[in-house]
Amino acid sequence: MAFKLSSLVLLFILFQLTAGLCQEKPEKPEKPVYGWQNEVIGGFNLTQASFDNWSQGGDNTLAWQLNLSAKFNKDMEKYNWSNNGKVAFGKTKLGKQESRKSIDEIRLETVYSYKLNLYVNPYISAYGETQLAKGYTYTDTSKVLISNFFDPGYLIESVGLSYSHSKYVKTRLGAAIKETFANEFAPLYSDDSDTPDKIEKVKVEPGAESVTDLTVNLAKDIQFTSRLELFSNIKAFIETDVRWDNVLTAKVTQYVDVNFNIKLFYDRDISYKRQLKQALSLGLSYTFL
Q: Residue 203, Cβ neighbours under 10 Å: how many?
């Protein structure tokens, strides 16, 4: 419990720092550069430890993680078309236990904005998310399969207004439709409890979506990024789905960096309790584009 509180306190301090930075005097506007701006970054993290006749005890460990993120952005005088994708997969093996997933996600997003030469511009977007491999929940003596590729899968389409007043913060708010797809695990993710005689494999929820992105360079080689995604079903507006992803990245060398990541997730349809994940990693990073 103390660890979780310390993580949240760290986030609060980071937000206080970024708030101060965002209040700096605006810089002189730079001449816009139109056209495609593309970036593809790959990363690999590895942790390993082994013991042989070690008097203090311990278990052999091996943990690895692959990350691939891509951005394809076309910025023109009258519109902006932004495309983002992320694939992350990793496993951990402790002692004689079989390997277990430590991270597994596929995320794709496209946002098209029409420029009105104002701070507020209309947009249309689509967002999809799923995983690569089977997911299990473990006990001391067994494991239970609870998810698989596109089981579940999520798709959110949204249309509304976006706001960007500085290079630090971008936010958008609009009407949205959230679709949840499932097959074998439909009872866990997409089934409607109001129809006990039928199991729905697709759940459609109309509502409202808000997405806010914060990117701040705290120092020359230290960057903090935060993304807060909120979705409220129109039938239960006070029951808001929350996904809050925070990453603090420190670049050690051109190809080595350290990442501290905290994710908070809440979806009442999956669990009545909030879910929290923290990860600290040191690994290789390479920019392809």
A: 18
